[in-house]
Specification:
With 253 residues, this protein is of the alpha/beta class. It has seven helices and eleven strands. Strands 1, 2, 3, 4, 5, 6, 7, 8, 9, 10 and 11 form an eleven-stranded mixed beta sheet that branches. The longest helix is centred in the first third of the chain and has 14 residues. It is globular, with a radius of gyration of 18 Å. It starts with a helix and ends with a strand.
């Protein structure tokens, strides 16, 4: 069982404070700003489908792809309650699928940083290129290398409670500058207070931070042109204070 498969039942609670509505609105604004008209949208690494459904509410025809079948099942269950026009399928974002002629492709919540080699990052961009129509827009976020190097990594503890559930997560990270990667070792204590049960889950997330010159090279190799690099939820360039950045690219051929 993969880490995400263990994680799926607790995922939404752990990230319930994440403002998916505001993020989807911001991303849509940037897609429009850079020329993507309202139409079809492919969400690479869609997780449990929250962003995808928010885009559908705004009028996009959305397809969401995620490697975890457990995440896809939760996304489909969410869809049954929401009745939005979204199609989900299990798949690898680094492998070209059947999707073609999309107006926009997004990869959010640091999907690009789960690609820990330049080859896998380029493969993800190749998937986006194949799915986009000419002049279609790709937007993805990632860990920005300048901020990671400036701020370093540290141990963090997070607790979220929604009775009867409580989750405590301890994150301890190791940094390998030679490979521009961080291994985040999570220990989660998932408690059901009604049952007096605590499930312990241990998992490791292998992440890579990226610099704009690396991203530009991979995009060019995949047949995409860079439009710009920005700090997350901003239209300004990323700085050493912005762990999260995003890049906009366009398919020109």
């Amino acid at each position: 069982m993969t880490a995400f498969e263990q994680y799926a039942p607790w995922y939404d609670l752990l990230y319930e404070e994440k403002d998916y509505v505001t993020e989807a609105s911001f991303v849509e604004q940037q897609l429009h700003r850079h020329g993507a008209t309202l139409g079809t949208l492919l969400d690479l690494g869609c997780g449990t489908g929250v962003h995808a459904i928010e885009f559908a509410r705004k009028g996009w025809m959305v397809t969401g792809i995620d490697m975890s079948k457990h995440m896809i099942r939760r996304a489909e269950a969410r869809l049954l309650k929401d009745a939005q026009p979204v199609r989900f399928r299990q798949g690898n974002v680094c492998e070209t699928g059947p999707e073609r002629d999309f107006d926009a492709v997004v990869a959010l919540f640091h999907v690009a940083s789960y690609q820990t080699t330049r080859t896998s990052l380029q493969d993800m961009f190749t998937t986006a290129h194949a799915a986009l129509k000419p002049s279609g827009i790709l937007l993805f976020d990632y860990w920005y290398g300048g901020a990671v190097l400036a701020e370093g990594v540290e141990t963090r503890v997070k607790q979220v409670e929604r009775a009867p559930l409580r989750i405590t997560r301890i994150a301890q990270s190791t940094h390998d500058e030679a490979s521009s990667t961080v291994v985040v070792n999570y220990t989660l204590f998932c408690e059901d207070q009604n049952k007096s049960e605590i499930l312990r889950v241990d998992e490791s997330h292998h992440m890579r931070y990226w610099f704009p010159f690396e991203i530009e090279a991979a995009l060019r190799s995949a047949g995409l042109d860079v439009v710009g690099h920005f700090a997350w939820m901003s239209t300004e360039a990323p700085t050493s204070q912005n762990w999260s950045a995003y890049t906009v690219a366009k398919r020109t051929a």
